Amino acid sequence: MTGKIQLQTLSGPKGLRWSRTLFSVKELGVIGGIVLAAVIFTVLNPQFLSMTEAASIITSAAEIGIIAIGITILMISGEFDLSVGSIYALCPTIWAYLFVQQHWNIWLSLVCALIPAALTGLANGLIVTRFHVNSFIVTLGTQMWWRGIVLVATGGYPISYFGSSKLMHVMGGEVVGGLHFTAVWFVVAAVLGWFVLNKTKFGNWCFASGGKPDAARAMGIPVTRVKVVNFCISALLAGLVGCMDLARLNSVSPAQGQGLELTVIVAAVIGGTALAGGIGSVVGSCLGALLMGMITSGLILMGAPSYWYTSFVGIILIIAVMFNVRVSKISKSRSA
Amino acid sequence: MQLSNIQKRFGTVQALRDVNVNIARGEIVALIGDNGAGKSTLIKIISGYHAPSEGKMVFDGREVRLKSPSEARALGIETVYQDLALVENLSLWRNFFLGKERTGAGWMNVLRRREMEQACMQALADMGIRLRSTREEVGHMSGGERQAVAIARAAYFGAKLLILDEPTAALSVKETERVFEIVKEVSRKGVSVILIMHNLGQVYQVADRFVVLERGVQIGNFTRDQTTLDAITQMVVGVH
Prior knowledge:
The complex is a heterodimer. Chain A is mainly alpha-helical. Chain A contains 14 helices and five strands. Chain A is about 70% helix and about 5% strand. In chain A, strands 2-5 form a two-stranded antiparallel sheet. In chain A, strands 3-4 form a two-stranded antiparallel sheet. Chain B is about 35% helix and about 25% strand. In chain B, the strands form two sheets. In chain B, strands 6-8-9-3-10-11 form a six-stranded mixed beta sheet, sandwiched between helices. In chain B, helix 5 packs parallel to helix 6. The model of chain B has no long low-confidence stretch (mean pLDDT about 85). Classes of the chains: A mainly alpha, B alpha/beta.
């Protein structure tokens, strides 16, 4: 009796296997983009390959990347977060206000500064899941709410702090040769994010919640809780990166981070994360952030006006997604 | 499982009237009838979504009053819906253990991947499904294969009564046969199966017993040797 049924799809012709494996790498598009950008910028200016450049690329990639990791996990579980740009300004503003102007303990101030981020994530998640409002709308609302509050509270003026502190050094200070601690935290966040998504039960639940919420619920997975937790992770990482930025630049502007929410979504999407949920990878998003860091540095090296950055990223976004769609089609037809 | 004098009213609408069915261990029962005959209502009562207005349900020798689907599931009554069974973008082993993941100690709940891959492979082999790897995404599998996996999974996790709602809709003839092979295999292992199908020709190939409903009334209950395909067809289309 046994052996009568064979799952045909799992035993395709051998010749196609290597190409199938290659095309099943979701990060193929962004890896190609990185190689292409490296070649073009190096030809235009060999300085691009110097250590100083590498450090500056990694610094800008780190800040986009850490937030993109949170966004990726959230997008995989099927939701968006547009409030990260405002939270990126909110948390360091509170932090600076408490320890610079109110002379609170710097650690306690940091914890207090991150509480609104966690609460915003919680509110985003609960409104999206309980009231069935699209996350795009809810997080657009919380984004505008906090931006307004931050601008009102600061009167639009930046807060600066030029004293030294061990905590600030560890968060955003220089490690060696232009490389900042943000890069270290980027690596830590990437490893942790990758591990949670691919190696733990929670990661499994994230993919299922975004891929097919009804099926996930039918299998007893707390889809609502998964999403709420991910909204909190996304908001907390954005707040934390804002504080790292304050530590690195010794100043926080209430207007900082406008448009950042789209930048991090672009990084995630270039790296193969699907807008519809259920598909994505932390590695891809980190590489996406790296590519955007390369474009920033490359354009500066060329002496191009910085506005070009926006145009460039727009084109790369479209090409990357076209490529990703094509690749996933090939990988599907090869295995059918 | 024994159902006696099951009735269900929604307000003034009598959805089910006096349904009496006994399902033996390992028996495959076809629930047939036209749209609106009350098949879905009966299934929802058995799987715990609705409580019956009147009547008695005995499962595994004990009378049960199901208050929720999860209570039914805990007893071993599992419903497999064709579209809701599996998550396409997850690999086979991740789907198989979805919601019942085996993890290591500690708060991180690290997946014991190798162990689950092997257990999944073994469980499917026991059901007569052989494969080389369980790492393929379910989205790459055909409809019949997915259905087979979903049934095998339910049986593996201790289902005693499986309810299959149109398991072969939109499947080719060959694929339908595969699904039936799995259904027979789980019934041989002692799992009872309720099949809801519109295609009487197909369901006649596999079922041991036929329960015919019409407008909430049970108008027939035959074993296979008590009836013919023609006879049940005529009952369903109303020539009797």
